[in-house]
Each structure stands twice: as structure tokens, then as C-alpha cells.
Amino acid sequence: TPTPPGMRPHAFWTPPKRVEMLNDLKGLERDGSAKAADEREYDLLVIGGGATGAGCTLDAATRGLKVAMVERDDFASGTSSKSTKLVHGGVRYLQKAIMGLDYEQWKMVREALHERKTFLHIAPYLSNELPILLPVYTWWQLPYFWIGCKMYDLLAGKQGITGSYALGRSKTLENFPMLRAENLVGSLVYFDGQHNDARMNAALAVTAAAHGAVVANHVEVTSLIKEKDESGVEKVRGAMLRDNETGEEWAVRAKGVINATGPFSDAILKMDEPGMPDIVAPSSGVHLVLPSYFSPKNMGMLDPATTDGRVVFFLPWEGGVVAGTTDTMCSVEADPRPSEKEIEWILSEIRRFLSPDVKIRRGDVLSAWSGIRPLVRDPKAANTKDLVRNHMIHESEAGLITIAGGKWTTYREMSKETVDRAVESFGLKPLRECQTETVRLIGSHAWSDTMFIKLVQNFGVDPDVAKHLSHNYGDRAWAVCALADRTNGSAQHASLEQRIHPRYPFVEAEVRYAVQYEYAMSVVDVIARRLRLAFLDAQAAREALPRVIDIMAKELKWDDARKQREGRKGLEYLTTMGLPDSILDESPAAANAREGFVNMQTTRSLDFVDPASYYRRGQFSAEEIGAILAAFSEFDAHGDGHIEARDIQPLFESIKVPVPDNGFEPFLDAAGIRHSDPGNAVEFEQVFDVLGEIKEATNAKGRKPTSDLNLNQIPTHRSGGSV
Predict the structure, then answer these.
(1) Phi and psi based region of residue 183 (left: phi greater than 0; alpha: psi -120 to 50; beta: remaining)
(2) Residues 39, 41, 46, CA angle at the centre, nearest 5°?
(3) What is the pTM for the complete model shown?
(4) Cα dihedral sign, 160-166-167-173
(5) pLDDT by residue (tens digit) across 625-653?
(6) Which of 417, 418, 423, 379 is nearest to 401 (CA)?
(7) Which residues make Cβ contacts (< 8 Å) with residue 189, sequence separation at least 6?
(8) 363-395 confidence digits (pLDDT tens)
(9) Which residue from 529, 419, 437 is spatially nearest to 123, judged by alpha carbons?
């Protein structure tokens, strides 16, 4: 029974099984029995399970329409899981609106700020306010940024959140100690929203199911069905579908079809009109995730003046730090890869505003991904080369409605406009007006910020796990915990105590929940979009793959051949998240071979030619650290933790350090070692830093891009500056 708008699904409500959803799509009752012919047609078929597609489905379902949504891959498998994680009006757009006296830009920011407040209301456990610091290095910028931030606050009006404020130099460094202090004047702090995008997308899909919609992932549209109307004009009246899990195909009929496939919009449009020119101008946005210690836990930063005029965000998220983004033209593909050049460009921009003491290297990058932003051209515009600034709704002669463009923050408004258009064009009769401004997503109704305490008290879970469950599942965390309790019999709560990776709060019960309650069908669905581990730490996700596959195999009855395929697909996916292709040929044992304890009696030879170390957080194994310590102690004549500068060369020779192309001197200079004075004292930390830099330089050959980091990015006046 569909949940009425405004009502809460009960705490342990279970969504319909995927097989029930497929039966419905096939024109059967959910139990597989026959359905009356007049009940087989949907009011709307939505193609695409990203933010906009799921938003359209929820909007239509809460109006009382009969709606189905199909997604070729998984919910949020494309752009919707690869955003900057911000829910924002757009400070860059506001600046452009003021400087260019552009009312359309002004209106766009105002609408986005309204949606930001709505977003935070309907999904409070998945979204939150985030203070963002703008560092100021010239006095005249302080009043300029202050006025801009106050106008941003003012424009939000009654929909505003916490107001902006200014900080002096000392308070700025106190709040953000990693910041470059030289010439710092002060800062402005403004507030925007932040969310967990893929989990938000899954919540939209499951909430739509709770309100009576049919939602099915891993179901692909292979062609559109057309029929002539009363006037003899061909109209789109459904689609041919294929279950990508089984290969089974069938037809589904609908009064109207909505194309909400983001970067892949042109593929569906060409099913309708093969000769239609492309409307999507794809843009690649690359983001990196760095360890949490590079940023304060509860404050982000925006660099308003990169080397090419766009902005770079540096934001704490889910225990890591998201940095980005680029904005380069690209081709449309399912799982795009970030290039080393794009990764290095972001790192180079970050280094400009962080303290010289804070060194960021390629090995600090825990994950890196590329999301395709679907900038769009209006095919009905006079100049089809111009990009639409916000989103666009296009209706073809055959009645196919396409919604494209926009951003996560405005998904709800975009969905509303699209369903409004569909109601008008297809003559639909909804039971009520749009409800999505007040309909809270599943998990929101009984959630509070202190709910995690009850989870600790009732289930005995670690506090960090309880907080994680609370902020990722809302009041559905009770169902996750109860599921764990049921699945372990005498070993009570075992799957809540058993983490899938020791460094992160993800537990085994979440994998079962993802399969049973959130339609996860592949290991990538789980590690990338339900648990987000692949986005937080690709190497940790790689290490967790075998255990996740074992749990899913029990739930989904996989045989050994399927488990092997899932393992391979998981590794292939992780090569799009910043790990090198070499992981495809490396055994799991080799992947973990660098663990161990420091042993000062170990070998005296270091493996400097180690390409994988370029991508690792720790450059040296425990055995190599032991070799360095042992060698240093032999040259430390007085045992006081120092050697003399004259000892550096023989020390390096003793552990077989390769001589770089430009010699050792530049590395010694960078470490502040006065090597021109043979008797100068050198500390172990300095030697260790030099060895790390030499090893990185050695293994960066052929991997690290050249000094020319020009990415040929899309001009900010056309794309909005990548945000």
C-alpha cells in the first residue's frame, strides 16, 4: 500500500523486492499473477535513476500518478554520485550576476538558495550546514568579500541558514591552521549545505517506492515504442526494456516518457529522432579525496582565485577531505577516469593556499574520480552552440520529454517543472499538486542529531559506528541494527562489531541492508554508492572487496564464477577511482605484502624503483623503514639522533639510493640541509624527508605530468566555473 504524502513508513517497512518491481513492469501483479489489461499502462515512464530521474519519480508518485523508473546501471551510478557534495546557491554565480548586472544569474542563485533550505529540511540526516572559509591576502578584498557574503545571506531571505562573518588573521589560523600564513590578512566565513549525494539518491528512489512508484536498477531501455495518435502523428508510448541481470526483454507502455539520463540524454533522444544533433556538451569535473588531517573537521575552504580564474573547494566530507574541481571538455562514457594531469592540477592549486609545512603528494590522494557534468544546448535556440546556464526541458515532436542540465541543489525544482510539463502535455490527472517541498525522505521522520546515543546504548556499538549509521540511514539505522542482530544467532551483534575495513566505520550489516532494502545488485553498487568506501579510500575498498563479495554471495546466491566476475568488476571500477591499472594483475597477497613491523635488523637495500608507491599513502614498507633507521644509527656516532652533512652521501650509498638526474643537492636544499658545511648537524627527520622525495621523484617518471598543467578548461562565462 503506497504511503500517503506526509506520512512516515513504519520503522521496519521493507520495500518491495526487485523481482516484484520487475513483475509490475512486465504487466503482472507483484506476486507474478496476471493483471487486467487496463492496469498495465503507466502514466509516466522515467528513464534514468540519477538525482533528476529519482526526483521526477518521487514527485509523480506523491501526486498520485502511476509511475515507473528504470536505470541501466545503478541509482546515482553516473554524475549524481560524483558531485562536489555541496548544496549551494553558488557564490560564483552571484559574483557574475552582480558584476555583469545579469538578472537571470541573480534569479538562478535565489532559486537555488530556496532549494538549499528545502534540501536540508527533507533529508536532515543526509545533509548539513557547512561553514566555508575564504582566505583574504590583500586588504581591499576584505570589504569586497564581506559585501558579497552578506548579499548571499540577504538573497536567501527567509530561506537563509547561518549568517556569514569575518575573522582576523590570528582567528583564521586558529580555525584553519593548515592555511598559508604569509601575507594573510584575514578571512570571511559563509555557510552552505553539504550532503552524501549517492545515499541521497538511494533515499529518493526508496522513498518513491514507499509512495507507490516502481523503481528498477540494472534495467536498460533498448528502444522506444511509438504509436500514431488520433491525428496520425507518431507519439512515444513506452519502451522496450532489458534486465541486465538476466538478459530478459519485454515491453512497457506509458502515456508519457521522461528522459532524465544526464550526460546520456543524446542516446535516448536519438532513439526518438536519429538525426537530431547532440544537445549535451559534456564537461569533466575531477575531485580528489585526501586524509582528514589536511582540513579542520567542521570547516571547508574555497580558493576564489585559482591560476585560471575558477574556484577550488577544499571540504571535509565523511571523514575525508574533498578537493576539486576541474572543468574540461570530454567524451561521454560510463566510468570516466581522472587523468594524472587533472589530479596534479588540483594538487598544485591546493599547495598554493596551504602552509609550506603541509606537503601534499600524489600518494596522499586516497581516491580520485571524474564526473561528467551535462552542460546543455537548446536545440530550439537561434544559436545552438550557446550553453544553457541552468537546466532545460525539451519536448520532441513525438512527445518525448527530456530534462537535462542543472545541479544537485535544484533537482527538486527541476523535477517539479518536468512533471508539470508532463501533466500538461500528456493530459494526466494527478490527485494532488506537487508535494515534494514538504515530503521528507525515508529515514528523516524520527531522526535526531543525538539518535546515535540510543544506538550505542541499545546495541552496544562503537560510538563512531553509531554516528555513521545515524547520519547515513536516519531512523532506518534501527533496521540496520536489527538486521545485524537477526543474522548472527548466538553471536549477538557480531555483524555490527565486524567492520569491513578496520580504518572505517562501515559494518557488515550495512552490506546486507544494501541488498535487502536498497536494491544493491553488484559489489560496485555497495562499495561505491551504498557505503561510499570507494570514494573515501580506493585502496581500502580494494582490501574490503573479498569480504563484501562473500556477504553479497550469501544474500544473492552467487556461485563462484559470479564471485570472480564481481571481483574483477570491482577492481576495474577502482582503476577509475585513482588506483593504477597494475592492480588488475596483482594478487591480493601482494597488495597486502607491505604490512608489518619495523625491524632494524632487516635488509640494507631499499626498493626505490617501486611504481605502486607513487599512489600509496605510505612510501616505505616497515622493512624499508627498519633499513633506514639501522643505517642512520651506524652513522650517528654520538647516539644523539644527528649525523653530519658529510655522512649523507655514504649513508645513501649504503642503502643503495639511486642518484636522481639532477643530483642530491636540490633535495637537500628543499629539506633545509646546509650540505655545503660538512660538519653541519642533520636530523633523522630531514634525512627521511629527503629519501621520501627522492623515491617519489624516481617513481613519478612517466606518471607525474609535466610542468605544463594547462587543462584547456571551459571558460567560466560559459560553464559557471565548474561549480
Answers:
(1) left
(2) 135
(3) 0.87
(4) positive
(5) 777 888 888 888 777 778 888 888 888 88
(6) 418
(7) 131, 132, 133, 134, 164, 165, 166, 167, 175, 299
(8) 899 999 999 988 888 776 655 445 656 889 999
(9) 437
